[in-house]
C-alpha cells in the first residue's frame, strides 16, 4: 500500500518508529482482514493523523477501518465509541488494541456539513450540532480512561513560540481554569466540527445526522462549541467572527448555557488551536488567532 507523502510526514512529526510501523503495515492489514472477515478496498482521501480505509465485511456491508502507530488517541476514541454505543455517533464494530485499530460503521451517504455549508444554512447547521452535543455529552464514572481537558489543552502552558501573544494565552488559561474543572466530568466529543458531522440514512426521526471521530476528552459542558466556532474550514476568519453572535445565541438557547461562558470556551479553544497550528504546521495563517480576537470582546 502506497501511503501519501504528506500523511507520512505528519505521522513522523507525531509518532516514533513510524518507518517500522509502515514496514509492518501489510502484515497488520492482512491480520485484521482475517480476524474481522473484512476486505480493505482503498484509502479515504486526505489522510491526516490516522490511516483510514474503506472496507467490506463478508456479507458486503461497507465499513471503515481506522488504525495508527501506537498511541493513546485512537485507544481513547475506541473507548468513547464503545460508551456511546451508536447514540448520536457512528457505531464501533470491532476494536483491536494490540494493532491500534478500529472497525467502524460506515455512514451513508456520509456527506458532511462542511460540504453542505452555506451562509444561508449556517443557523440550521448550528441547531444540528447543538442537538448532537446534547446526545453525546454524558457523565462518566470515576475512574475512567478519558483524558482531562486541562491535560489535553496543555499547549496553552507549554507553547514557547512568538506567534501567539502572551496576553491571549494568559487569558485562555485563566478561563479554562474557571470554566473547565473536572469535578463533574462530562464526556465531550472535542472535535465536533462540520467535517465530523455526516448525513446518514440510518438515523430515524427528524435528525438525519451522526458524528464521527470523538477524542475521548472529559471537561466542561459546552467546550464542544469552541471547535464548531472555528469551522467550516472554507469560511474566512472574518465570516466566522461575524457569525459568532448568532451561533452563540442559538447554542445558548438549545443547550441552556450562557452566551458568555460559551464565548469564553470558544476563545479558549481558538487560542489553543492557534498554538497547535503555530507549533505543528508550516502553513501557519493566523486564522484561529484572528477568530480568538473576534471572540474576546464577547467574553
Task: Decide which structural class fits the backbone.
Answer: alpha+beta
Q: What is the CATH top level name of the largest domain?
A: Alpha Beta
Strand content bin: 15-25%
In the CATH hierarchy, the third-tier topology of the largest domain is known as Aminoglycoside 3'-phosphotransferase, Chain: A, domain 2
Q: In the CATH classification, which architecture of the largest domain applies?
A: Alpha-Beta Complex
Envelope shape: globular
GO molecular function, one term: phosphotransferase activity, alcohol group as acceptor
Pfam family, one: APH_6_hur
Protein name: Streptomycin 6-kinase
InterPro entries: Kinase-like_dom_sf, NH2Glyco/OHUrea_AB-resist_kin
Structure description:
This protein is an alpha+beta fold. The protein has helices spanning 5-14, 18-23, 25-36, 72-84, 113-116, 122-136, 149-152, 155-158, 166-179, 224-229, 237-255, 259-280, 287-295, and strands at 38-43, 51-57, 62-67, 92-96, 101-105, 109-112, 138-139, 147-148, 186-188, 197-200, 209-211, 217-219. The chain has two domains: 5-106, Phosphorylase Kinase, domain 1; 110-298, Aminoglycoside phosphotransferase (APH), C-terminal lobe (Aminoglycoside 3'-phosphotransferase, Chain: A, domain 2, Alpha-Beta Complex). The chain has 13 helices and twelve strands. Strands 1-2-3-5-4 form a five-stranded antiparallel sheet, with helices on both faces. Strands 7-9-12-8 form a four-stranded mixed sheet. The longest helix is centred in the last third of the chain and has 22 residues, at 259-280. InterPro entries: Kinase-like_dom_sf (IPR011009), NH2Glyco/OHUrea_AB-resist_kin (IPR006748). One of its GO terms (molecular function) is phosphotransferase activity, alcohol group as acceptor.
